[in-house]
Design a protein that fits this description.
Blueprint: E1 12-15, E2 22-25, H1 26-30, H2 47-53, E3 59-67, E4 74-82, E5 87-89, H3 97-102, H4 106-117
Antiparallel strand pairs: 1-2, 3-4, 4-5
Length: about 120
């Protein structure tokens, strides 16, 4: 569904049909340690970008919204996990290194992408 920031995100939900006024992020709802989600958080969220770069079916993302400097400001912290290998992923845009090792030829593809950035 399209977020208030204009990006497609499968974790965002809204319902304005027949008098309803519901907007929520399902990732924040699952996380009890996070602050309440606000529609303005979608403008700073990188989850739609991560999901467009990495479409791994075993990628699990968690979003935690925490206050900055005495409650003024908000920080969005994204953690990524590989459900298949049960490891934390350092760079969610790239994905799990163990999953890449299982797929032959992926290193050549990643090297080609890195060479094109230079």
């Amino acid at each position: 569904m399209r977020t208030p920031a204009g990006k497609e995100c499968p974790h965002y939900y809204q319902d304005f049909h027949r008098g309803h006024s519901t907007q929520k992020c399902r990732l924040v709802k699952e996380n009890q340690e996070s602050l309440q989600w606000q529609p303005s958080d979608c403008f700073r969220c990188s989850i739609p970008d991560i999901l467009s770069a990495n479409a791994s079916p075993v990628l699990r993302l968690d979003l935690t919204i925490s206050p900055i400097f005495f409650g003024i400001g908000r920080r969005l912290e994204i953690t990524a996990y590989c459900d298949k290998h049960e490891v934390t992923i350092d760079d969610p845009y790239v994905g799990c290194s163990q999953c890449h090792a299982e797929r032959p030829g992926i290193e050549a593809f990643i090297r080609a992408l890195e060479d094109s950035d230079d």
